[in-house]
Every structure is written in C-alpha cells, then in structure tokens.
Amino acid sequence: MKQSASFQGLNIDKNSIINLEKGKLPPQAIELEEVVLGAMMIDKKGVDEVIDILNPEAFYKEIHQYIFEAIFKLFQKSEPIDLLTVSNQLKKDENHERVGGDFYLISLTQKVSSSAHIEFHARIILQKYIQRSLIKISNEIITDSYDESKDVFDLLDTAESKLYDVTQGNIKKSSETAQSLVIQAKNKIEAVSNKKGLSGIPSGFNKIDKLTAGWQESDLVIIAARPGMGKTALSLSMASNIAINNNIPLAFFSLEMSSIQLITRMISSETGLNSDKLRTGKLEKHEWEQLNVRVKNLENAPLYIDDTPSLSIFDLRAKARRLVSQKGVKIIVVDYLQLMTTGGNIKTGNREQEISTISRNLKALAKELNIPVIALSQLSRMVEGRTSKRPLLSDLRESGAIEQDADIVSFIYRPEYYKIDTWDDNDRSSTEGEAEFIVSKHRNGGLENIRLRFIPTLGKFEDIDQYESPYEFHSKMNAAANDDTFKTDFDSGNQSDDETDLPF
What we know:
Helices cover 43% and strands 11% of the residues. It is elongated. A hairpin with a 5-residue loop joins strand 7 and strand 8.
C-alpha cells in the first residue's frame, strides 16, 4: 500500500500575526463598573451620589445591568441597600442565577473598600455609554444614508434628533413604568407647591397665569388674531415679562419683522418712549438719558431673536435644539405660523395640509424639548363678515389641525379696532385702550375672556389693574439737569425713516 503523502505546514510570518488587543472593541470600563456596584452595596452615600447619573443601559456587561436595576428598585422603595437586600431583590426579579449568585456579589464588594471617588468613576462609565451610543447612532445614520428612498431632510432631522438626545444624556426609552411616572409626578407637585401656584413659565399677566398656572412644559400654545389686533405686541410684552423680569431664557423666531424692528419695539415698551420718537431719533436730552439707563435691563436679558425669513419647520427644529442645549432656552415664540414652510422636497399637497404638517411638528418639538412653544397665527376673513367680531375656533386660518394639535388656543380681540365704543356686557364700559384675551380651548384647564390694557404708542399690553398712564411726564430732575450732562452724536435730521413697523 502506498504511503499517503505527509501534510506540509504553511510557513507563516510571525510579523503578520495580529493580536486580539489590536481589534476594535466597544468602549467599556468593566473594572470601574465592578467598583461602582461594589461601592453602592457597602456604602449608602455612594448610592446617593450616582443613582441619578447612571441608568441600567449605561453598564456594558448585562449582569451589571441586572444588579444596578435591583439597587435602583431598592432605592425607589427607600429600603436599605447592602449585599443581602440586593441578593434578595435579584431573587425576586429571577435574575439571581444570571448574575452568578451570591459568589459574584461578594466578589464585587471585595474589590472596593469605600465609596471614595465613586462619582468620578460613574461619570467615566457614562462617558463610555455615550461613546457606544454615538457609534450605534452613527451606524444607523450610515445605513439610512445609503437608502435612496429616504428623503435627505428627514435623514438630517432624524440624525440631529438622535444626537440631541445623546447630548441631553437621555437616550430614549420605549416606555416607563407607572411607578416611576407616579414618583416623577409627585416630585413635580412638591416642586410646584414652592412656586406660589405657578407650575409653568409666567406670562407676566396675572389673570392669564391664574388660569393656566403658567405656560406648561411640552404645550403648544396658539395665539390667533386678525391683522392689526396686536399679536406681535402681546408676544413681545410676554417676552419682556419672561426674559427681562423673570430672567428666563427665551427664543423668538420672527418671520414677519426684522430683529432690529423687534428690539426697537421692545425698547419702546421698556423705556416708555413713544415708538415714533425712536424711529425718527427726535429725543430730548433727558429722553436719551432715560433710553440709556432703562435699556440696560434689556441688554442683559437672556433673549435670543432669529429673523430668518420663510423659515422651514426643519430649520426651526434644528435651531431650537441648539438653543435649548447651548443657551438653556425654556420657551419658544414663533411669529407667525402661516409664514413658515415645510422645507425641502416634502410634498404635502395643498396649503392646508402644509399648515397641518407645521402645527403637528411644532407640537412634536414642544414634546421633544419639553418646553412650551407659543405660535402666533392669522385668522380668516370670516370674522369681518359677522356682526359679532369676537373670534371663534372656526376662524383659524387654513387648517383645523391647528385646533387639534394645540393645547391652548387663544384669541386677541380689540373692539376699538372695529370702532366699537362699548363692551357688550351689562356695564357697557368703554373699550378705549382695552383688549380681550379669549381662551377658547384649554386642554388642561378652564376657558375665560380676560381683559388687558393696550397702549398703542408703546405697542404694549399690561394688566388693567397695573396699568400706568401712557403719557410721558417730565421729571423735575431732568428739567434741572445741566445741558452738558448728556451728549449724543446722533443727528435727528439725518435719521432714516424707512422703518414702518406699526405699534400694533
């Protein structure tokens, strides 16, 4: 029998051998995970320091996720956290054997002697989790980008939304348990109890705040009116109250007026100087001084104005996310809804469907960022044809979807605009300088018609009971001031009068 040929081994160059260490591994810090979990089981102080930093998904090893879940459940129930209680909780969850039993738990506690530096270690674990999340999101974006059927603007919006979630440290979960939601609700109620009844952002108008308890998180608020009623004036008055008086960061997206026009109107409102004087620059010396002194509050206010014309809903969402993450913006105002576009190649059919898309996205934005969004809106001409000029929900222009998406729908009504001298109530009081803020839909509260004072010369709304005279009184101090105490380089005769923004 012929002997079979012997197999010859392959000659392998040792330099071509690659160690596993040189391969790519997901970012992880398993040793730190062990140390943090061990510290949490031996020291209650350690739990308090990191329980709000980490979540189960932050741990790379699955068994560590189970252990952290058990610790978190004990923390929620205000029960002691140690080796025995964690072991019992894992048994209740049927995860005891999965994690390696008591032997593994004991080994975790032996790896650490105290909870010193536990917060620092926890933040490193969180960093590794964020890195893994970025890798996952990036892979999803790459996969979607190769899909020719997907719209590029949808891809951009999705990508930015996912990255925003990472920056906020709240990777979206599919659902939350009733228990955790109840705890969150109770904490919010406790926080509200210390805020004099206002759970949201104050508008600065007492009766409106009493009705709404402030503009609430994730709410879409629609303020609608016919042209000339004072939509912009009311929104600017609220912006002043929020940003200047309460120092709450606010973003104002103006599609109708330029940023300079808006700020000029706010200067008029803040200083009490007639808007005509500001447009022409014909100010007295004491008025220049008044302007310079009172405008400082406005200068220092956390107010951000964007006057991009024909702003698309896609651009708005992108800009809003950046303002919330970078500037800490707590409320957004859009002036006004009908001037927005869907943007890109999105085919929405007619204008009514386009407005529906915009209002739906505004509501989605409010929920995503968890802040109130106030959108101004035009009304249809149907109001003009009725005997009663008071607006109705059916007057919302171009779309009934606005009414459906909004949490609050309100109207501005000034009878004086229609040359109606008296209110249609029992008192028959004068309508001069007065307006009505009509809340026609309120998802979480009652409906009411609220009277406000309107000052045309300043383009400003105020509470009726807090109304101050619109007339300018010259102070004796100003009259006695030396002529040389204030000088200006401005020559009123050379000022341009191109600005035609009306006070309302």
